[in-house]
Every structure is written in structure tokens, then in C-alpha cells.
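thought: user wants a sequence for this fold. calling inverse folding tool.
action: design(structure=
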């Protein structure tokens, strides 16, 4: 059923696109435009016109602008691409800052909650953190939070 509707619409539109237009002059000297053939008295001045479909107005305006001002259009496109790139860079930076903020908050919570904090010593072993080192790590985490959590 759905296809039948599209077929009928297509056939209707195609007949409109191929309609013939006649131009002729009547007895009073008036020029007539019709889709019906003129009467036999006007057969000597009859002309069949070939009418083409007009291009869409937006495409015509765009082609006129691009033909008359190609440099301005290119500059506009360049500025738009630059703004889009800056926006994408800003979004990526915001996502990275959000991730770093969450990591710093997690580190601070771990340092403050853990009763016995250990850290790798760099040689494959672990070292227990004393109170001075704990306070240093808390200060570092708070500085990271201040920098990334805005």
C-alpha cells in the first residue's frame, strides 16, 4: 500500500514536469500562453516552448555568491574550521582536566583515609609513609585538585 502511494505521486509529478506550453497570438494581437494547443485560426503564429525547471533558489544564490566572492567564502570556511577546531580542543582539554580532577580527589581520599600508607620504593619493594611524607602527599593532591577541578 505504501509503495502504491509513492508510485501514484511519482506518476503525477512526472506528468507535470513534461507538460507542453504553447505560445500564440490571438485575433486581437494578444500573446497567449497555454498548455492546450491553440485554435486553428492561430496555427500560423503557434510556437511550442521548451520549459526547463528552475534551479532551487538557494543553490542559485549560493552559486552567485561563490562566483562573485570566492575569497570571502574561503575566509569564512577557514574561520569556521578554526573555531570548530578550537572548540574540539577545548572539549578535549575539559575532559582531560575532569579525569585528572577525579584522580586527584581519589588520591587525596586514599591518603587521608588509609591508616597505614605504603608507596613503591622504585626498586620493586614498598616503603611505609611517615607523617611528614603523608602531609606532603596531601598538599600535592590538594594542589592538583585546585589546578584541575575548576
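)
observation: tool returned 150 residues.
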Amino acid at each position: 500500500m505504501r509503495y502504491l502511494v509513492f508510485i501514484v505521486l511519482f506518476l503525477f509529478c512526472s506528468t507535470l514536469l513534461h507538460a507542453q506550453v504553447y505560445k500564440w497570438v490571438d485575433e486581437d494581437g494578444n500573446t497567449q500562453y497555454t498548455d492546450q494547443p491553440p485554435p486553428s485560426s492561430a496555427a500560423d503564429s503557434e510556437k511550442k516552448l521548451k520549459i526547463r525547471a528552475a534551479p532551487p533558489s538557494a543553490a542559485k544564490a549560493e552559486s552567485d555568491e561563490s562566483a562573485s566572492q570566492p575569497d570571502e567564502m574561503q575566509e569564512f570556511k577557514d574561520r569556521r574550521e578554526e573555531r570548530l577546531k578550537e572548540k574540539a580542543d577545548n572539549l578535549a582539554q575539559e575532559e582531560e582536566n575532569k579525569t585528572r580532577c577525579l584522580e586527584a580527589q581519589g588520591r587525596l581520599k586514599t591518603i587521608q583515609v588509609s591508616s597505614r600508607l605504603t608507596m613503591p620504593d622504585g626498586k620493586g619493594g614498598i616503603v611505609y609513609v611517615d607523617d611528614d611524607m603523608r602531609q606532603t602527599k596531601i598538599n600535592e593532591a590538594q594542589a592538583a585538585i585546585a589546578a584541575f577541578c575548576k
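thought: summarizing for user.
answer: Here is the designed sequence. The chain has a mean pLDDT of 80.
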